[in-house]
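On clarity, I found the account of how folds are encoded harder to follow than it need be. For illustration, here is how one protein appears when written out as sequence plus structure tokens.
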Amino acid sequence: MKKVPFTLTFLLMLGLLTGCSLDHRFNSLEEASYRAKGFENNMNTAPIDPADHIEKRVEAIPGVKEAHVLFYGVDNLILGIDTEEPPSLQAIKGWIKQELQGEAVDFLIYVVTNRESDLLARVKAMRSNILEGQKVRESEMVRLVNGVWKTVVPFNLLSKS
């Protein structure tokens, strides 16, 4: 008879300990969506679209005509930049680091420029489809991301280079 209260107490304590220490993780799409909703304006009202926010910040860089942002997974940011004259990649990275400092620290940033014109056209088309509310198939996104991964060397805002 003494085993029942002990067992119940043990199970209750075990449940409390494991319930408090569970690592609540989202799958990559849920987490990306969760993180995207975390971008809020200074008024702390309705969340704004993080891709649109980053596009506007990058378009403020001199010489950038258009910027197109795609997020993939939890930490990949593909940034398609249409420039008037193709500046050096190091200059682009420096401008982006300066403009986005503190906003996209957790992301690997892949910059697609006019040099990769076919990839840039695909990034533009994908972003346009998303903005128009068209469904984007996972296979299309994976094909685009694989092309970017094979062509562009990423950087993050914490790296020195």
